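hey can u check if this looks right to u? its 324 residues, i copy pasted from the old doc so theres a chance i mangled smth
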Amino acid sequence: MVKILVTGGAGYIGSHVVKILGEKAFSVLVFDNLSKGYRDAVLHGDLVVGDLANRIFLQDRIRAFKPDAVMHFASFIEVGESLAEPIKYYQNNVSNTIELLHIMLENNIKKFIFSSSAAVYGIPSILPIPEDEPIKPINPYGQSKAMIERILEDASSAYGLKYISLRYFNAAGADSEGKIGERHNPESHLIPLILKSATGERDNFKIYGNDYPTPDGTCIRDYVHVDDLATAHVLALQHLLDGGGNDVFNCGYGHGYSVREVINATQKVIGMKIVAHETGRRLGDPPSLVADSSKLKKNLMWRPQFDSLEYIIKTAWQWEKKQM
């Protein structure tokens, strides 16, 4: 049985990947400190509660489990927080990842799936964004992801590491079976914030900026259902297990929606009016991020099943109501 170590596997995207890995009969060990994840989100395999900064503990678990590959999701993801606390982001997203890679290589583990981000592009010069768009992050979060991508290139050249870097656009929605979903604390993602305002959990939904160079003045993002994103990870893993080489792929649907369009779609899906308050821009927010994912579709035969904003919102709403 193929063994996979999943760091951050109790979190939002990681837990959805673990679910698919379990259904495909992989042997899974989840390593998570539960600072952002949840025990009950780990539906398959075993959970080890630990921190990547604890080198001896991590090394002991890796040596005991002897994974064939590592899938790495254990990073901080909030753009605003990264601007306020950049050292925190470089410590966890860069330093801890380097330590993980070091332990892997010491134990001759040379297959690595990296959770990257569209934030590496900064403000792109072309839309949809191809993978060869220049890397110009505009916040420490994006910078931390870009740093690891460069480190992976160098580690591959020096040590023979094989890796796939998946640049997410905006992961959204919940498991189609309703078993797991999005639970960030504090929540910062658009769709759950809108839904929490509808349930009354939040009473002040804000639109950050109405003067962007977009048709309605609000930011545009490419929202990709978390189940399709999870499937892309498993395809990338299988690529490496089958002897495939290094690569970088965008993960998105190739079309975007503005904040106002998402609000309107949510009102339609849930049958409730959303009251939104407009305020100023946030630092670090590009006007538009839309993926060119043709490379992922061509090279890994990725076939998204849930390319519908209404379906994304529907699954997120079903999950949100379960949390009430």
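The CA atoms of residues 123 and 286 lie 5 Å apart.
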